[in-house]
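Contributing new records

If you add data, match the layout below exactly. Sequence lines come first and carry their own label; structure lines follow with theirs. Keep one chain per record. Anything else will be rejected by the validation script.
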Amino acid sequence: MTVIESVATINRPVDQVYAFLADMNNHQQLMPENIYNWTSTTDEANFTIQNMAKLALKISSRIENQELIAVPSEKAPFDLELKWTVSDNGDGTTIATHIISADLNMMMKMLAAGPLQKLADHQTSRLAEILA
């Protein structure tokens, strides 16, 4: 399993960060420009990654003010889990960690690990910008 992680400090309390992430409609704001055909509900999102694949994700687990896990709701090119964890920093700020776990063979890892890391980093930095 390939695990890609990105961390950001968000200048908002943990409950506000969690509330934003708990609604899949908000995740469109975190996506890079190569994502299009976005449709979403509170629990699911469908979109296309330019020159790659269509993805359909659904939230499979929620632990209020701690963790959200999204998994593919339709067949994906590889097994995938997107997890957000949030924790109180003790000073009114929140540590948000985005973890992408993907079951990639060696060839796929060479092709996808870089773009997945870029995606995770982009999403955490956008979260920090939006909730600034």
